[in-house]
Amino acid sequence: MAMATAVTASGAWSTPCRRYPHASTHASISSRARVSRVDHGQPDPKGEALASWLRTHDGFDELGVRVRFMGEARGFAGVAVDGVEEGDLLVRVPRSAMLTADDARSCPIVGDVASQVSDTAALALKLLAERDAAEKSAWSAWIATLPTWEAVRETHPLAWSRDRRERALRGSPTLTRLDAMVASLVEDYQSIAAACARAGTPAPRVDDVTWARAMISSRAFYLDDGDGDGEGWDDDDDGIRTPDLEYSGDDDEWWPDPAISGDGLDDDDDEFEAFGGVDAARLDDGYRHDNPTGAFVALVPWADALNHSPDADERSLLSSTRDDETGAVVAELRASAAYAPGDEVHDSYGVDLSRAESFLRYGFVDVSGSNGGGGCEDSVDVSGEIFLRELLDVDEPAVPLFARLDAVGLGPGETCVAVTAHGVGESALAWCEMAASAASGEDFDEDFDGDFDGDFEDACVAALSRVCEAMAAGYPERHAAAVGSERGEERACGEDAAALVLASELRALTGFVEWAKKRKGRKLRRR
Asked: Which of 26, 57, 69, 468 has a CA positioned 20 to 30 A from the CA of residue 402?
């Protein structure tokens, strides 16, 4: 058999979602969310300065929450001053206080360069310009709350050296994803340097662009224009966000239209993920200027101070709306738990955020449930390309066979299938069957007696199991599965976080192999 032990994916930058990871904290339980207690009556000069600046913006409302410094290890967080009921509005920040790529392109300092580069590069330039302006920047009070380059270099994997990345993530497909993020960063820097040369201005330092990109990855939000048009995605019965469907005109099928949906399917619930697809396009030039969805990436002061809770639900995801009186765009989120005065309040960086996503975007992993109990489910990404190599017993599947999948960003080189110790999702298995059908020329709705023994579903599950077994063999023997838990910590950062990712992935891989053995031909998909 042609067996592979590492994944490949055409890589891109994951959708920025929330904020810089704080180090671990001791926590108690309040309602459904873990909370930390802080003396909210103590003065906090930087937090008060941030609030004072935001009060100058129409539409800002503190809503009984204050931004407080929680110590060098943790940085800033949101703290309830008054009692907060479940469902109460927690955050309200107007568009005028945000930073976006459009702001960069209209900026007299960086506009000429920002107009020549992608959204992420433009936003990075704007952030650096405001940081370098120091007290002259309108955003200086907020920038004072951001972590330093030294802190980012220690905790955010985007700033790690190649040697450090390989030491921490050897054997894991997360290393491939991180390498793709770094490659995207390098491309952004090169585009900025070239644009600066054309404009006759000095290029920023590599470290500065890396810091800015880490801020965007960990603190930025993906918002729509407040009219509810947003991303154009719908939830299906399996909890998978799927693009709008358009009739293809061939074979009486409905098929995702890339002109409507972007380049591919999103990765909700980690069923499968299109690298270089929608997540990348959201930060790409395709979403600039005449973006028909009205969606934009924004740095949102005050909102970015809230820390993630794995218990928070969709109500605690920041979203944009329009003010009833002024019509201005504002960003809001609600409490998914009750908080007493002095409790740290939380938002969600993503409901059911996987450990790999948490590590890659923010540099931390929640310790809760890291040994298999509670928290998010253990999962691991299996490269669609490697899956097909194993299924077909070939070194390289023929590219022309997948033209239709490639057209919507779901080609084998762009797609990863998430597996868990409890099996594989129905939508993920559907992709496997579509890819197998394209590769074999067979109709996957029918059983067949070709190169596979049995039907497509059995063959796909068996191939996934063999790939998982080979991947598991490539993981290091030592991994700190319980890092942080013995110290009573809520989350792990740096190499400790990477170790928890490896442990989680290995549990998923070995669990899937055992699940496949016990399955005994039982069907997963409805026919």
From this structure: 468
- Per DSSP, the three-state class of 428 is helix
Instruction: Residue 373: count other Cβ atoms within 10 Å of its Cβ.
Output: 7
CA distance 503 to 87: 35
Please write the tens of the pLDDT for every residue from 322-344. Answer: 888 878 889 999 999 999 998 99
**Cα angle: 456, vertex 462, 468; to 5 degrees:** 135
Q: Give the list of residues 6+ apart from residue 488 with CB closer than 8 angstroms, or none.
A: 26
Residue 393: count of CB within 10 angstroms of its CB: 11
DSSP character at residue 21: P
Amino acid at 317: L
> Phi and psi for 18 in degrees, rounded to 5?
-140, -120
First-residue to last-residue Cα distance in the chain: 30
**pLDDT value at residue 335:** 92
**Which of 30, 81, 63 has the alpha carbon at shortest distance from 341?**
81
Strand pairing category for 220-223 and 245-247: unpaired
Residue type, 275: F
- Give the tens place of pLDDT for each residue, 28-41: 222 333 445 555 44
